[in-house]
Amino acid sequence: MRTTGINHIALVCRDMQETVKFYTEVLDMPLIKTIALPDGGQHFFFDAGGAAVAFFWWPETPAAAPGIASVRKFPQDSKSAVGSMNHLAFDVPEGELSACLKRLEAAGVDHMPIVVNHDDSASGVAAEMHNGVFVRSVYFTDPNGIMLEFAANTRELGPADVKHAPMGATVEV
Questions:
Q1: Which of 150, 156, 133 is nearest to 89 (CA)?
Q2: Residue 101: how many CA atoms within 13 Å on its side-chain side?
Q3: Candidates 3.20.20.240, 3.10.180.10, 3.40.50.720, 1.20.1250.20; correct CATH number of 80-158?
Q4: Phi-psi map region of 128: left, alpha, beta (phi>0 left; psi -120 to 50 alpha)
Q5: What average pLDDT does range 17-24 have in this prediction?
Q6: SUPFAM superfamilies, per this entry (predicted)?
Q7: Number of helices and strands in the chain (H, E)
Q8: Are 32 and 45 in contact (CB under 8 A)?
């Protein structure tokens, strides 16, 4: 078996009208499919450039559960619960990151005010761009509190980038 990519990710929103406005107007993702569910809910799909971002909505959806599900505020909430989604990253060209920041600012979207340079240093980030930076990111949240990211790889990743053994649920000290 071999997958050929991500078809879509399905999330849950608290307000479909607000979600449609954000994804179509702020993120410029066309609404490509809408479904009325038999239980009174809705399931809408947005074109994210080859894959889709989909949302479910029901009139009586359970409330957000910060610290349990993926509803977060960056950077203070860096962890999310087992089985939840931590964040969703959209691939963008590196030269578009400044324009992405400006678009978020113009729309009044809560976001990190800088482009984050991810590297292999002890802190995982660098103040300045250098040869060790492998991805540059802009973090923001949608109206549902879902952490999103515009991510631009600065180089191709490969076997040389795999340097850590996976840890188990319990680590002996």
A1: 150
A2: 12
A3: 3.10.180.10
A4: beta
A5: 95
A6: Glyoxalase/Bleomycin resistance protein/Dihydroxybiphenyl dioxygenase (SSF54593)
A7: 2, 9
A8: yes
Q: Which two structure tokens, joined as six digits, stand for 123?
A: 């802190």
Structure tokens given for 76: 């203070």
pLDDT value at residue 63 = 76
Show the tokens assigned to 122. Answer: 């002890």
Confidence (pLDDT) at 37: 87
Question: CA-to-CA distance for 69 and 170, rounded, in angstroms?
Answer: 22
Mean pLDDT of 94-100: 93
Q: What DSSP assignment string belongs to 2-52? A: ---S--EEEEE-S-HHHHHHIIIIIS---EEEEEE-TTS-EEEEEE-SSSE
Instruction: Name the 3-class secondary structure at 110.
Output: coil
Q: What is the Rg, in whole angstroms, of the alpha carbon atoms belonging to the chain?
A: 18
